[in-house]
Amino acid sequence: MHMSDGLLNAPTSIAFLAVAAVGVGFALVKARADLDDRTAPMAGLVATFIFAVQMINFPILPGASGHLLGGALAAILVGPYVGALCVTIVLVVQALLFADGGLTAIGANVTNMALIGTATGFLVAVALRKLAERGKGGLATVAFISAFVNTVVAATGFIVEYAIGGAGGVEIGKVALLMWGLHALIGIGEGLITAVTVTSVASIRPDLVYLLKGNRKPLEVRS
Amino acid sequence: MKKFFIGFAVVSLLIAGVLSYFASGDPDGLDKTVEDTGIAEHAREHPFAGSTFADYALGGDGKFTGLAGVLGVLVVLALSFSLFWFLRKRSDV
């Protein structure tokens, strides 16, 4: 879902550069509270894993593919703020080192995949937390749903950006239909990858799953 | 604890270094959308399109996708680990 340069006009690109800067700045401030000697290495590995899995485009239709975005995956494992930073690092390395995703488009790309995707994935996962705490099947279901929604809503980010200042003046309904249709299919792949990853981590190291942190019962204090 | 982290890193290396050869070469959802609607005509070439590792290759040679993937994994790991380690709450103070 990496936009090239030129798909959005200059003012729109700059506006979303500002949106991304504010969002990433906010995440940088808030992330501190979620990072300690144990979760900081985990966060580095989550970013690394997302980079690796984003390389794997899977076929969805003849002539079209999709890849993981990783917002819900990161949010469930390391929280929304650290998660947004994980996806941002991946996008910056992709744009600078691998020429994947434009440079003026980096603001819109970060906004869609790192900010909107991660926030959406987290909100859905938190809304369904009770189900996630009910065991492996529940966690897998929550991971799948939040990842599916994260993909479709991140795709909606592009539709909105194109409506604001897209090049070529293509009818927005046409863009929306294609984006939503294709990303509903990609969302299934995103959901499956996220469910497998999150349940794998939870079965080995449940203490490293951010979403399940409230699950640990506090010590009872009798008075 | 160490074992889990090393295992996680090895899985990422294998995905980027080996599984990447089996990735679909078809356009992703956004690329397909902009191609089918003609928006793609307005896309500008990436300023670093001619750089060494552009498009996850080595000098444009897709045979080295795995190598580019491993390099990317190491770069993302180094950058993200450094950032998150720096940002963390210090427990030893």
Outline the structure in words:
With 223 residues, chain A is mainly α. Chain A has 8 helices and 2 strands; from the N terminus they run ααββαααααα. Chain A has a two-stranded antiparallel sheet with strand order 1-2. In chain A, a hairpin with a 2-residue loop joins strand 1 (58-61) and strand 2 (64-66). The mean pLDDT of chain A is 95. With 93 residues, chain B is mostly helical. Chain B has a domain at 29-93. Chain B has helices at 2-17, 29-37, 65-87. The model of chain B has no long low-confidence stretch (mean pLDDT 95). Classes of the chains: A mainly alpha (223), B mainly alpha (93). At the A-B interface, helix 2, strand 1, strand 2, helix 4 and helix 7 of A face helix 1, helix 2 and helix 3 of B.
User: Mind describing the biggest β-sheet of chain A?
Assistant: 2 strands, antiparallel
Mean pLDDT across all residues of chain B, rounded? 95
Helix content of chain B: 40-55%
Total helical elements of chain B: 3
Which shape of chain B, going by the Cα principal axes?
extended
Q: Uncertain regions of chain B: pLDDT < 50 for 5+ in a row?
A: none
Distance between the termini of chain B: 23 Å
What is the structural class of chain B? mainly alpha
First and last CA, distance of chain A: 56 Å
Radius of gyration of chain A: 18 Å
CATH secondary-structure class of chain A = Mainly Alpha
Order of helices and strands of chain B: HHH
Helix vs. strand class of chain A: mainly alpha
* Overall residue-averaged pLDDT value of chain A: 95
Strand content of chain A: under 5%
Fraction in beta strands of chain B: under 5%
CATH level-two architecture of chain A: Orthogonal Bundle
Order of helices and strands of chain A: HHEEHHHHHH
